[in-house]
Each structure stands twice: as C-alpha cells, then as structure tokens.
Amino acid sequence: MSSTSSFTRFYDTWFDQLNQLLEQLRIAPKPPSSQDDRSHLSSLAQKIVSHYAEFYRVKSVATESDVLSVFTAPWASCFERSLHWISGWRPTTLFHLVYTESSILFEFHIADILKGQSTGDLGDLSPNQFRRVSELQCETVKEENAITGELSEWQDSAAEVMLGPFTDLSDKIGRLVSVVKKADDLRLRTIRRVVDLLTTQQAVEFLVAAGELQFGVYGWGRRLDHRPCSSASLMPHHI
After folding, report:
1. What are the CA-CA distances from residue 196 to residues 62, 101, 183, 193 (Å)?
2. CA 115 from centroid of its chain's CA atoms
3. Interaxial angle between packed helices 166-196 and 127-156, expressed in degrees from 0 to 180 and rounded to the nearest 10
4. pLDDT tens column, 203-215
5. 104 pLDDT higher than 50
6. Cβ distance 203 to 171 under 8 Å?
7. What is the b/e burial string over 156-181, where b = at least 16 CB atoms within 10 angstroms of the residue's CB?
8. pLDDT-based confidence at 48, cuts 50/70/90?
9. Alpha carbons 198 and 94: distance in angstroms, whole number
10. What is the pLDDT of residue 112?
11. What is the average per-residue pLDDT within 72-89?
C-alpha cells in the first residue's frame, strides 16, 4: 500500500476524532464558572492543538515518501483542493476567522458591552489582543509570501530540470518537500500562536469555529463530488 493511501486512511480516522474532540468542546460549560471548568476547557483545547500537531507529524512522513502525491491532496474533495494553498488551508484564514467571530459576538452582546459588562468571549477581545492578532497576521502574511515565492521559483525551474540529469530531478523533489513542510509548519505554528494569545474561553470558541469551518467545507465538497453531472449541464446555453 502506498504512503499516500495510508495517509488518506489516517486522515479519515483523524477527521472523525477531531469531530469527537470538538463535540466535547461544544458541550463543555461556557463560560467556565469554576477553576475546574477552566482547567477542563484548557485541557480540551490543548488536546485539539495536539491533534493538529499529530496530523502534521504524519503528513510530514508522507511528504518525505511521496511529495508529489501529497501536493495534490488526494484525501480532499475537488472543492477543498480549489481552496488550498500548498496542499492545505492558508494560515491567514485563521485571522479572518477571529475577526469575523469577534464581530458577530460583539454585535450579539453589544448591549451588555455598552453597559460595561465583560462577556469574556471572542467579542470581548482587549485592545492589546487586537494589536497582537494584527501583528501576528502581518508576520504570517510575510511568511506565506516567502513560501509562495519559493514554490514559484521551484515551478519556474521545472523545464530546466526536465532537460537535466536525474540527480537534478532528485534535488528538485527535495526542494518541494521543503516547501510543503514549511507551509505545514506555518499552519501549525499559526494555530498555536493564535490560541496562546486568547483566553481559555476565547481559544475554545476559536477552535470550535475553525473546526466548524473545516467540517463545512468538507461536507460541501463531498456533496459536490457526488452530485450527478449530466452532459446537458456541460453544454453552452444558447439564447
């Protein structure tokens, strides 16, 4: 069995486990009313972060074994792959998620906030937290651009390598492995750094929102992949 097939099977199991962990977060008491509640939420949040770390650890092994197959992400739907940045989600997506969730919750609790009442959720980010999120976003954008630049250089040199000796091809594959690993490392570091700058309650809400986005894209993609396709729908319409 190929390493990519093994990773696809791992991904299916990993995805089911992620859903189970997120369900534990969804039903956990929020906001935490005691130190035990806070410890429980913090433990669950760290389990999910560790679960993502395990995903990228196993993916790294598959990347070293067959980077070309991993780059095409055969475990994902066509719709998911259309949204990919170097065989996965774009790290800066997390910042858009934080801002969106914060805005929604702020509007929902605006009456309480105007009364000076703290909600403690993502709608109640402090000015310092907003500043740190913005700084982290800028740093992540720079790293994304640098990795994208490396991939562009790799692609630009494709013709030269195809005309060269086999040793050049091996070196080129090695460079692509490095690019994919850097992208995955940035994804995991971004998750960890966003979680670190949030309170326990906010981190839980962020992880649940990220998971729901992931499951939403996954479900939508599977439905599109299994949608009946008639030849008539592929023909141009004439007025």
Report:
1. 29, 17, 20, 5
2. 36
3. 170
4. 999 999 999 999 9
5. yes
6. no
7. eeeeebeeeeeeeeeebeeebbebbb
8. very high
9. 13
10. 64
11. 94
